[in-house]
Design brief:
It is built from 13 helices and 19 strands. The chain has helices at residues 2-18, 28-34, 48-51, 54-67, 184-190, 195-202, 302-309, 322-325, 331-345, 369-382, 390-393, 399-405, 418-436; strands at residues 39-46, 69-71, 73-75, 89-93, 98-101, 117-121, 125-131, 138-145, 153-159, 167-177, 214-224, 232-239, 244-253, 255-260, 268-276, 282-289, 315-319, 354-357, 386-388. α10 links the parallel β18 and β19. The longest helix has 19 residues, at 418-436. The chain starts with a helix and ends with a helix.
Length: 438
């Protein structure tokens, strides 16, 4: 009996140890700053587990409830880009945009910036981002844009009625003949459609279109009522500079309404928006999540990390690895990508604290995930980074199936639903709390 009890206690202790942050001493500059009367910038990067923002929104609230809210941080107008995103804000435009994320094969945009997404068009356009929570008001916004927009003037407005009241969405079905070299995602973007819809209409053959091949497509377009412009007033005006521009407003706002004009000879190209507030202390929690992303994907477009490092993050948190588990990648290639990402972020701050978080369990690649986890743990040690084993903390092998039984995971075998992601976030928060309360 005594021997069995000892084994049980040992297993319990091992489980608790797995829920602690390893190499935690490397995070000391961040944890010390949190407790001071200063503003701390958290940059959290990841894949589809992060783009949905359920995990990160939980952490955002925990950090900001404890240390203060210094701004909503990085956002992207996901609704405008026809993809999923955080549910604490909405976005809309009066025009359609070509849009891609960094994992897409495309030749339209030579660069993709801060958020891992891009929207671009050649029309005079409004973009509205409306925050649902009053505490997410802002008085400063940083616009990440293409450097070719340098000198272009944009205007921010306040509105008496929301833009959605003046925009109607319409759909029509068309035939499309594929051009030479045209990719699937370029077709999706051209018609302002979605990958899911065009695959439903054509099957998987559209994933690799051949020149001259015909496809059925759904084109989504907008009808804009310009009466909207009778219900807005200028708030701020500024010329864009370089690849990012900061604009301040006199009074806190919960709605960001921007107008950017374009013509056939120039374009609107935006990579994301960071919302801040005048605060002497608090946390800005920036999230950069990209569906389908791997470590290597964050190295594809140099502009992205160039823009992100200008945030001067106090900690970089990376939660990737699920998509590598589905890919024929070897250890050397994987760890090289991890090191390259960290190295590029530390080019301007050699002491930047970095926390690597392992992927959780999944069903299709259940046997592969532990190997990926071990590679990430080794990479953390090699790069003076901290490591949190979310895989073990959340139950290890078989935990995804258990989450499904508890209605906390999706039927796709890979993604969780909101309660499941919030449980994972709580594990991460508890691990941070142990450090902060030592």
């Amino acid at each position: 009996m005594g021997r069995n009890l000892g084994i049980i206690l040992l297993l319990f202790s091992a489980g608790m140890q797995a829920q602690e942050i390893e190499n935690a001493e490397t995070l000391q500059p961040f944890t010390e700053k949190l407790t001071q009367n200063k503003v701390s910038q958290i940059l959290f990067m990841g894949d589809s587990h992060i783009q949905a923002d359920w995990l990160t929104s939980y952490l955002r609230k925990k950090f900001q409830d404890e240390y203060g809210n210094a701004g909503r941080g990085m956002v992207f107008p996901y609704n405008v880009a026809n993809t999923n995103g955080s549910d604490d804000f909405t976005s809309i435009s009066n025009r359609t945009w070509e849009t891609f994320r960094l994992v897409h094969e495309q030749k339209i945009f030579p660069q993709i910036g801060a958020s891992g997404f891009v929207i671009g068009n050649r029309e005079n356009s409004f973009v509205e981002i409306s925050f649902k929570n009053p505490q997410d008001s802002f008085d400063k916004v940083i616009i990440y844009h293409d450097a070719k927009m340098n000198g272009k003037e944009i205007t921010l407005y306040r509105e008496q009625q929301p833009l959605k009241n003046f925009v109607q969405k319409r759909t029509e079905n068309l035939n499309h003949r594929a051009l030479a070299g045209e990719t699937f995602h370029e077709i999706v973007s051209k018609y302002n459609s979605t990958t899911t819809k065009l695959k439903q209409m054509n099957g998987n053959r559209i994933l690799h279109p051949a020149e001259g091949e015909n496809f059925r497509v759904e084109r989504n377009y907008l009808i804009y009522n310009a009466d909207f412009e009778n219900y807005i007033g200028p708030l701020a005006q500024q010329k864009l500079t370089g690849f990012k521009t900061e604009i301040s407003v006199k009074e806190p706002q919960n709605v960001f309404l921007m107008r950017s004009d374009a013509s056939s000879s120039d374009a609107n190209v935006f990579y994301g928006f960071q919302f801040l507030k005048k605060a002497e202390k608090g946390v800005v929690f920036n999230t950069v999540g990209v569906n389908g992303a791997t470590y290597a994907d964050f190295l594809k477009y140099p502009l992205q990390i160039q823009q992100l490092v200008t945030m001067n993050p106090d900690i970089l948190i990376i939660a990737l690895g699920t998509n590598e588990a589905f890919a024929p990648i070897d250890k050397e290639e994987f760890q090289s990508a991890v090191t390259d990402v960290i190295t590029k972020f530390r080019a301007q701050n050699a002491q930047l604290p970095v926390l690597l978080i392992s992927p959780p369990d999944n069903l299709p690649k259940q046997s592969r995930v532990p190997e990926i986890v071990s590679w990430i743990r080794e990479s953390a040690a090699q790069n003076r980074a901290a490591f949190f084993n979310l895989y073990e903390a959340s139950g290890g092998k078989g935990s995804f199936k258990k989450a499904q039984i508890k209605k906390e995971a999706n039927s796709d075998g890979v993604h969780f639903v909101k309660p499941g992601y919030e449980n994972q976030a709580e594990l991460i928060w508890k691990a941070f709390s142990k450090l902060l309360n030592k």
